[in-house]
Design a protein that fits this description.
By secondary structure, the protein is mainly α. The protein is built from 10 helices and no strands. About 80% of the residues lie in helices and about 0% in strands. α7 crosses α8, α7 runs parallel beside α10 and α9 crosses α10. The protein starts with a helix and ends with a helix. The model has no long low-confidence stretch (mean pLDDT about 90).
């Protein structure tokens, strides 16, 4: 299993899409920090005490990045036809699926944490140069760390969602289409037709996870939202493994 895991980690980290997304993210962080510094001026300068909120503000982009990486990590295998080749080396499908999912989720979490730390450092430098660094509460560092970890956890959930749907649908585009269709159509309809179900919706629980605070519209605490998302991720990954084991690979 160790050799298989090591192989899947190397395979994931060698993907061109990962390099492209990380490069684009770093470029965006640099440009964003420079713009923020340039526009920081009295009476409304950048204030370092708002760094946790700034990190949460980029959570949607980080979440989408995790979704795309998760979907492409397995969708590319189906598209290129290399899944059959992999199975000649490792015919135990559940074992292979677990290794792929583990590599995907761990790498997405680590990359998300790294990029968010870079974002925090860039915004800190911009604030030191052109903003206000006074008035930091005692809990500031903990709030920053919590925002980074929760946002990275949301990205990891997105990668689990993308991975599972791409494994079931054998296509990255199908995974992305289903996800955006669900969020844009199904959840909107459910909020209107079944408002009592809102506490079970993905987007509402993700908001609670990212902000770290219970939201009145979601009706859940942080721990409750995390458990719901963990349950959804587990069910989807299990469905992906069962589908991969049962269906023919051609």
């Amino acid at each position: 299993m160790n050799a298989l895991l090591s192989s899947e980690f190397r395979r994931f980290l060698a993907r061109e899409l990962l390099l492209v997304l990380v490069t684009a993210a770093l470029a965006g962080i640099i440009v964003g920090a420079l713009i923020a510094a340039a526009e920081s001026k009295p009476p409304d300068p950048l204030a370092l005490r708002f760094l946790p909120e700034w990190i949460q503000g980029v959570s949607f982009v980080v979440l989408i990045g995790g979704l795309v990486l998760g979907a492409s990590s397995v969708g590319a295998e189906w598209h290129a036809g290399t899944m059959t080749t992999l199975l000649t080396w490792e015919p135990r499908r559940i074992r292979l699926c677990v290794a792929k999912a583990t590599a995907c989720l761990v790498c997405v979490f680590a990359v998300a944490v790294g990029l968010l730390i870079v974002f925090g450092l860039a915004m800190t430098l911009a604030t030191v140069a052109r903003g206000a660094t006074s008035g930091l509460p005692d809990s500031w560092f903990g709030s920053v760390s919590g925002s980074i970890l929760r946002t990275a956890a949301a990205a990891t959930f997105g990668s689990a969602l993308g991975f599972s749907l791409a494994m079931i649908g054998r296509n990255s585009a199908a995974a992305l289409g289903v996800t955006f269709g669900y969020l844009a159509i199904v959840e909107v309809l459910l909020r209107e037709l079944r408002p009592e179900w809102q506490r079970w919706l993905l987007s509402d629980n993700l908001v609670v996870l990212i902000t770290g605070r219970a939201q009145a519209f979601a009706g859940r605490s942080l721990g409750g939202a995390a458990l719901v998302l963990l349950l959804y991720a587990g069910v989807l990954l299990l469905a992906a493994a069962v589908s991969f084991r049962a269906r023919d690979v051609t």
